[in-house]
């Protein structure tokens, strides 16, 4: 029996999809991670915005039209919070975030299986991927789940819980070691609120990273999204000092306006964010910072939006994920007055995207002439491509799939850079 696993949303979902795939493969199912003719379709869902849930509903309807005899299963955050909506869409099986870990037990069932407060009984010790990874160059490892922040716009904590759960350090080390021995070259450490790793097990992200960099092998470590308030001088120094850790961080800004940040219930001001950036860039002036920015939060004025644009120019982000605010059920922000009209949000996101693209290109221009280490991940039309330690996309004429190549950056494109293989010159003397 063939099962197609389709993943929406964050890196946590990507990891959990791999966990499901491995469980199913161990039971003899043929698992693919694309939309092809299958007996069962598993949609690992996201609920972060209205747009995300709209796309999932479209996907469900398309699958039912295209493959009327197939079973449709939806799991993930949308299942956790919107299982009644999914039932109306005619989904055959709905599994919550805890139940997805045991999909092999539920696949023969029909109906709704959602533990509404699973985080009070849940740990990460049984979340361990042995071998079933879709990407053969980069692997995601989930080390933390749950969030104690109370951002006024976010529904994710309702889906994943407000209790911090961390995977034991020795288990993470074991998982990374297994992947490195399978010749994975990049390990992405991910969590819902990664900076809070270890708070529940008398550990810390610093301790975890110190353990991981001791693992021998030709590989690198990349951290996923981390909030600015969790980036202290000790962690920044550790990242800068360790060659195995990429000089790239995804640090959500959400807004450049301190007033809007206060209404969002974010735990920092504009000045706080810029101080963190300054500390990072002292470690490496070219340190790559990517971010998320929300436009049109309730009450966001034109002046507030200009503050966001100012920060984008000042930080010189290497990439910005810009998106429009949308009400999420049961959040504080959904009840706030002064909603920004849809046409204004659309205009602002277009302005932000245009500026962000220009700023990212300016960032890449600073890298021309510098050496970089590129993980070759694809080959098409005689061009090798992959990302370097700064998470900049390279195109190069030489390489080997799955290997890290030393290159020199030659020129900038709209999407990334062009580079050539760096050859060390040997003196004839």
Automatic annotation (TrEMBL):
The alphabetized UniProt keywords are: 4Fe-4S, Iron, Iron-sulfur, Metal-binding, S-adenosyl-L-methionine, Transferase
Q: Name one Pfam family in it.
A: Radical_SAM
Q: Which SUPFAM superfamilies does the UniProt entry name for this protein? A: Radical SAM enzymes
Asked whether the UniProt record includes Transcription among its keywords, one would answer no
Q: Which GO terms describe its molecular function?
A: 4 iron, 4 sulfur cluster binding; metal ion binding; tRNA (N(6)-L-threonylcarbamoyladenosine(37)-C(2))-methylthiotransferase activity
SMART domains according to UniProt: Elp3
What is the required cofactor set for this protein?
[4Fe-4S] cluster
Domain Radical SAM core span(s) in chain numbering: 133-362
Concerning NCBIfam families, the annotation shows: MiaB-like-C (TIGR01579), MiaB/RimO family radical SAM methylthiotransferase (TIGR00089)
InterPro entries xrefs: Elp3/MiaA/NifB-like_rSAM (IPR006638), Methylthiotransferase (IPR005839), Methylthiotransferase_CS (IPR020612), Methylthiotransferase_N (IPR013848), Methylthiotransferase_N_sf (IPR038135), MiaB-like_bact (IPR006467), rSAM (IPR007197), rSAM_horseshoe (IPR023404)
Q: Quick check: keyword ATP-binding in the entry? A: no
Q: State the name under which the record lists this protein.
A: Fe-S oxidoreductase
Annotated MTTase N-terminal domain residues = 1-112
Transmembrane intervals: none
- As given in the record, the signal peptide range reads none
